[in-house]
Amino acid sequence: MSRSRSFKPDRDVAEWKGPVVRYDLFKEVTVAFVVVLILAVGFAAIFSSPDEKPITLKSWSTAAPVDFVQTAITELDGTSGTARYGPPYNSTQGASQKLGPVSLENLAGVHIPIDTAQDFVVKPLLTLPGATALDGAIARYEGAGGAQRASWNAAYEKAAAKATYPGHLSVPSGSYGPVGLMMSDLLAMARSGALDGALTSSGQLYGTDYTKPLLFIADGQYMADVAGNHHLQGTQWGMMNETGSYPGQAWLWLYTMWYQIPPYSTSSNGDVLVWGTMMILTLLLALVPFIPGLRSIPRRARIYRLIWRRHYRSLSAGR
Amino acid sequence: MSIDVEEHETASPHGATPGVAPTWTGRFRRWAVRDLPPDKLLPDTQPAYVASWIYVFGALTLAAFAVVVLSGAVLAIKGPAWWHVSSAGLFVNSVHLWGTELFFFFMVIHLWGKFFMAAWRGRRKATWITGVLAFVTSIATAFTGYLSQQNFDSEWIGTQAKDGINATGAGAFWNVLDFGQMLLWHVLLLPLVVSIFVGIHVLLVRRRGVVPPFDDSAGAEPAQAEPAGTAS
Amino acid sequence: MPNLVPASLIDLSRPGHYVHWGFIDISVANLVVICVMVLVFVLAITLPFPHGRKAKR
To answer: What is the ipTM of this complex?
Structure first.
């Protein structure tokens, strides 16, 4: 049953009883398809599409061996971005972002458990065959107490800050015990390509999950530098951009804009704040028809007078 | 052997037409024919006020969607590695990318046009909402497409976007760094969702028709407004 | 492996150009797309649409 409600011009409209014109739905859709197909094929032929080669652990450790080693030691001592990430990878206290008092990350929990020391360093090294010295070093490292390991790690991290690569890895000497051999062997393993295989290996032949190698690579500086050269950094509105001079995802302009301005750009909860904001704005867009004020904008903007000018002209002519 | 005798409804609170069996199928047919009669579903006339180029952008968006789906289907035939190693594959990938750019291009112009016509008026709110849902799910589909490219873009976008998605808690179940998961979402689940929203959106447009202009005659309140919709 | 990129007439794989305006930082390619979008929208609501033939209801 239709209740009688007051007529609101931004919500209601009288049913059209006026004249109609001939219209061909099939023809419109067909012509539109042909036009768009020609445009897409034309753009494809003229501009092609970008395909920048992926960074691998092999290409990273070859192009920037020092950055690789400096990152690897943070994976071993648990100070890398991934090691301190919190959910869903591990349960680092206080690492997760909060929306007000609530941490959605913590609520969801650790579902993709990653122990960077074991998963990125120790376990891959143990897959190397016939490495007696390395096996001894790992056994010594694993057998040592936490304080001893921390001391070796800290010594290596300090030394690695001054590492160079004149054809081979050169790290100033220090009391880093077995860690030196572990790191130089991990670098050799990465440069051979074997680390890529070890980190994608899912324990069976087939695999599609690249979480581990991607997190490892993203912990380094090299990938961010490459992205910066392509103007893809978050602070460069990179989310909208594509490699090279291709147009990117212009439709993400609003999402990436929030990351440029406070409080989003300065908050440690920036990601969840941006997502929360975008969800509210998306909801507002979907609910425009219900929101007084917002739904009056079209009537006030009067752009419709231009769109329907023939209709209004015929009305005033008939009056 | 028993013979089912059809009992025809003679009356129902929903104003049943005689001659329709009280089966789910019969009721669905009655509803479908009432709400989407052939001349509404496939119209050969439009109200005279439909006289602007802005009206072609809905059809252009649908056409771009078709180009994207078709080029994506060709990419699927040879699998995800093909376009990296073959110039034919690269060309099809380019059509897929430019089709996507055109899809969003036309869709956003369509959105602007419908906004400035306040096209939700007269029980057309659901049309507006399904359009917004199609837009949002299209963004998610494009995003998983970028993640499925197996190149530097995918690596960078995945490792950057994970922070936002993890922050919402969704990252625990929806891992943007799992290529297999993202590829399946991209080629099956999300296109299906977009197609469903687009399908409902188009059927609603056909059912309710194109929104009439604002009545600008001074102070006029039409004698018979369409009932303000609870149905919409 | 053959270089596939020159399969295009215009090579867009070279580094892009960017426009800075206050806190806004946008690639020329994206700016072109957005400007063309606005232009097409304006044209769509201003260009005359061909008259349809009157039809009987």
So the answer is: 0.92
